[in-house]
Design a protein that fits this description.
Layout lengths: L22 H5 L6 H7 L13 H11 L3 E5 L5 E6 H10 L9 H4 L13 H11 L3 E6 L2 E7 H24 L1
Keywords: CBS domain
Organism: Paracoccus homiensis
Protein name: CBS domain-containing protein
């Protein structure tokens, strides 16, 4: 056999192989922002006005299967949030006389908000520490959307599943 002879190898059949995963692509989801979640979020944003009644609010919560309503003024600016918890507190204070009250009497006025650029992990931490499940997303003074702790957890679990799949593909090839 001549010295230059080399048996045919599998790599001879591939022109150029590339890797679709890297450390940065496999960990990039850990840096996800609220905006990333909003791109995948479906459904409408429902709001209520401060002059509406708790009866109207309860019907909206029931009809749309949601747990909170951002409270906006006539210009659409966020001025509060009304959650199921706010309504339950009022029920305990005024049993049998709660539903005629105005939203503005019961809503939470000091609302924790976030922006689309905020890291999801920060939002999740703030929600957990503050013991609330709904956070309005704002852009300047404008209400953009509402994220729930369920949205954040679901998004993160989906991303973790994707990361696990990518790592498995990286190992298996």
């Amino acid at each position: 056999m001549p010295e230059s002879y080399r048996p045919h190898l599998r790599k001879d059949d591939a022109e150029h192989r590339t890797a679709s995963q890297s450390v940065s692509t496999n960990t990039s989801n850990a840096n996800a922002q609220v905006g990333d979640l909003l791109h995948e979020k479906t459904g409408d944003l429902y709001t209520i006005r401060p002059q509406q009644t708790l009866h109207e609010a309860v019907e909206m919560l029931r009809d749309h299967n949601i747990g909170a309503l951002p409270v906006t003024d006539a210009n659409g600016a966020l001025i509060g949030i009304l959650s199921e918890r706010d309504i339950v507190r009022k029920l305990a204070e005024t049993p049998g006389r709660t539903l005629p009250h105005k939203v503005e009497e019961v809503m939470t006025r000091n609302v924790e908000t976030c922006t689309a650029e905020e890291p999801l992990v920060t939002v999740l931490t703030r929600m957990t520490q503050g013991r609330f499940r709904h956070m309005p997303v704002v852009e300047g003074e404008s209400l953009v959307n509402l994220v729930t702790i369920g949205d954040v957890v679901h998004f993160r679990l989906t991303q973790l599943e994707l990361e696990a799949l990518q790592i498995k593909q990286l190992i298996v090839g």
